[in-house]
Amino acid sequence: MPLCHRRARTQSVVLRMLGYMEEDGSERSDVLRKVSIPIVSRDKCQVAYPSSNITEIMFCAGTGGKGSCDYDSGGPVIDQAIGEVVGLVSWGNGCARSDYPGVYVRVGNYVEYITSSWWNA
């Protein structure tokens, strides 16, 4: 799947994950799963995380019951409209909590680094 040099064009993205399915760690997936999650505005995300600085290299997405969880970090976030990876799971508060969207890193900010690291590995 290609890396995206630009921001997601849609209001939702698709998250691919293998981590825990419950916050208490009682259920973990052995099968790659996917879920469509809405993108959350940076202002709304900043309100959810007042002690963190949500910067331009990040975006937030998710809603209650749908989002990333422990061990999903590094997993791809895909804009289905363009078929490209637009982000990677970074961090959040708990698992898919309604008041705490997941925080993701924008891949477009790092395409050059990722490409050079990939080919030089």
TrEMBL record:
SMART domains: Tryp_SPc (SM00020). This is Peptidase S1 domain-containing protein. It is found in: Secreted. Residues 1-121 form the Peptidase S1 domain. One of its GO terms (molecular function) is serine-type endopeptidase activity. InterPro entries: Peptidase_S1_PA, Peptidase_S1_PA_chymotrypsin, Serine_Proteases_S1, Trypsin_dom. Its main location: secreted. PROSITE patterns: TRYPSIN_DOM (PS50240).
